[in-house]
Amino acid sequence: MNRTALITGGASGIGAATARLLAARGWTVAINYRSRGAQATALVDELRQGGAQAVAIQADMLDPAAIVALFERVDREIGRLDALINSAGIGLPRARVAEFDAAQLSRLMAVNVVGVMMCCREAARRMSTAAGGRGGTVVNVSSMAATIGGRPGNSHYAASKAAVDSFSIGFAKEVAREGIRVVSVRPGVIRTEMTQNQLADPHFAATVAASIPIGRAGKADEVAGPIAWLLSDEASFVTGCCLDVSGGGFHIASAPR
Ligand SMILES: NC(=O)c1ccc[n+]([C@@H]2O[C@H](COP(=O)([O-])OP(=O)(O)OC[C@H]3O[C@@H](n4cnc5c(N)ncnc54)[C@H](OP(=O)(O)O)[C@@H]3O)[C@@H](O)[C@H]2O)c1
Predict the structure, then answer these.
(1) Domain containing residue 78: CATH number
(2) What is the pTM for the complete model shown?
(3) pLDDT per position as a tens digit, 31-51
(4) Owning domain of residue 82
(5) In angstroms, what is the span from residue 150 Cα to ligand 1's centroid?
(6) Helices 115-127 and 155-175, axial angle in degrees (round to 10)
(7) C-beta separation of 74 from 81 below 8 A
(8) In a mutational test of the pocket of ligand 1, which residue from 140, 194, 199, 246 has the highest number of ligand atoms less than 8 Å from its CB?
């Protein structure tokens, strides 16, 4: 049976890798993007050339009305939604708490937390068997940062992802008997557009590698695989938990500044 997924932040990084993997497995994918229209269109073209059905839909996670419109377009263009992958997310420049800027923090929380919650609301309204839906799976992309308060200067980002973890567990319990599974996936450091500038610094890259038990940063494909498994029937009893995809977590003592 053809299944359908909406991937927020799907034009790049972990979201794009997930779109490629799901499409290769026969899923129809809707790729949400904010500013990366050309990347989203190129990805859709690539997936269609591979025989998959795919659409790209613009929506800014900062805008609740745009999120509602995004799901309405999914309804019209791909129909029933089986899976939602919330991969859209942002970081902030490293800062000590004494340097925090309220507007930046509000934006961070609006994208990383409220945007995820609003997408989950729209998914619940469509997927819940109590509302006439056929169930589904939600994967929220969190971060290992949530487990350690972030690397130095990243407590703001870590807090936003800890909120995603806690929300995912609560949401999962709420809808567990309505056919919806919800899991938070916590990547460690992954080579994507989000981290490429930092990892281009050889000292930083080496220090990060040393801080990860497996000895290197991960690849987006290595997060997409576990996400695809979570969406599969093989994971039918997995919900309300966090899956670490992190090469073993952190050797805290050597975490870089
Ligand atoms: N890479 C890592 O080391 C790592 C580790 C742990 C967790 N994560 C999490 O993994 C997720 C994916 O990140 P990534 O590493 O794949 O980086 P990425 O390539 O930068 O992907 C993030 C995506 O989110 C989109 N996005 C940002 N703000 C948005 C908004 N307001 N509305 C809609 N889309 C928005 C971006 O598109 P635009 O630029 O067009 O806005 C981008 O496509 C994020 O939630 C991130 O926090 C990443």
Answers:
(1) 3.40.50.720
(2) 0.97
(3) 999 999 999 999 999 999 999
(4) 4-254
(5) 17
(6) 10
(7) yes
(8) 194
